[in-house]
Amino acid sequence: MRSHGPKCNFQTQNISESKHKAFPEPTRSEIEGYLRDIKFANKWLGGTSVIINHLTRLIGTNPPRQPIKILDVATGIADIPVQIVRWARRHGITVCITAIDKNPIIVEFARKYVRKYPEISIFQQDALQLPFKDGSFDFVTCSQIIHHLSAEDAIHLLRSANRIALQGIIVSDLRKRTLCTLASDAIALFIKNRLSKNDLRTSFRNAFSLPELFMIAKEAGIPCMSIHFHGPCRIAMVVDKRIFINQKPKELKNNYPKNNLGLICSNLRKAA
Fold first, then answer.
1. Is residue 66 situated within a structural domain?
2. Which domain holds residue 132?
3. How far apart are CA 106 and CA 195, in angstroms?
4. What are phi and psi of 240, to 5 degrees?
5. What pairs with residue 99 in β-bridges?
6. Which of 77, 153, 227, 228 is a Cys-bridge partner for 236, taking CB atoms 3.0 to 4.6 Å apart?
7. Whole-angstrom Cα distance, residue 193 to residue 188?
8. Is 15 a domain residue?
9. Residue 252 covered by a domain
10. Distances in Å between the alpha carbon of 265 and those of 67, 169, 222?
11. Phi-psi region for residue 22, left (φ > 0), alpha (ψ -120 to 50) or beta?
């Protein structure tokens, strides 16, 4: 079989560990069904496209000379890293992706899923205990994990991502809105998988508001970021360290007008 890329040698959050209430230990079958549901949602409801769109803007489509190193935190079944590899191959870009998740069963499923993609290495690792050295990766991506964390843990994760990433960070998550909460409650009525049903019923309620996201980023030492809305219920925090590397952190404003998050150096933009 022809290899499309290098075998990358590098060194998600456990789905039962979150800021939610205690939840009975999931079975292997439930985890598999949950991962299948998440993959479906990522494909059809924008989870994958959010990461790919912003990564495209950060990297561009001109192949760099060196492989691009990416860390994907709380990767799940690694469906998003697979799509990143497919995008990179189409544009002649070499990527080396380290994808981590805390749950050993999820890691097992992910390794099987990426077996045809030597660009991706899967490791069992706690998102809150990242062992990587400063500047180990060009980009760090996190999808659908922040709302599972307490504010303190979210700050810790972003601080680690900022330390590890040389060029940029992409955090995709849920937008805290009553409309989205009601919609997820309605959809949950038709979901059979216990984990997926619980996730739908709790995730939007546990999502952070815009002021909370900004305060988390500020406490994590993020100098500047941009916020992008994707559809009615998704949001992305994007840090381009290449632009702001020589700028000092800006001060918070006391209010949060509609078209500005409060960062002096970053506008609140709605993705096209």
1. yes
2. 28-174+210-270
3. 13
4. -105, 95
5. 72, 122
6. 228
7. 9
8. no
9. yes
10. 30, 17, 12
11. beta
* DSSP strands (E only) in the chain: 68-73, 95-101, 120-124, 137-143, 165-174, 226-230, 234-240, 268-270
pLDDT greater than 80 at residue 8:
no
Distance CA 193, CA 17 (A): 18
> What is the rounded CA–CA span in Å between residue 225 and residue 218?
10
Secondary structure (DSSP) of 105-138: HHHHHHHHHTTT-TTEEEEE--TTS--PPTT-EE
Instruction: Using CB atoms within 10 Å of the CB of residue 120, give its burial: 0 to 12 exposed, 13 to 18 middle, 19+ buried.
Output: buried
CATH (domain of 35) = 3.40.50.150
Structure confidence by residue, pLDDT tens digits, 33-56 = 999 999 999 999 889 999 999 999
- Domain membership of residue 98 (yes or no) is yes
pLDDT per residue as tens digits for the range 211-231 = 999 899 989 998 788 889 999
**C-alpha–C-alpha distance, residues 192 and 30, integer Å:** 10
Give me the number of domains the chain comprises: 1
> How many whole angstroms separate alpha carbon 65 and alpha carbon 79?
26
Rounded to 5°, angle at Cα 166 from 162 and 168: 65
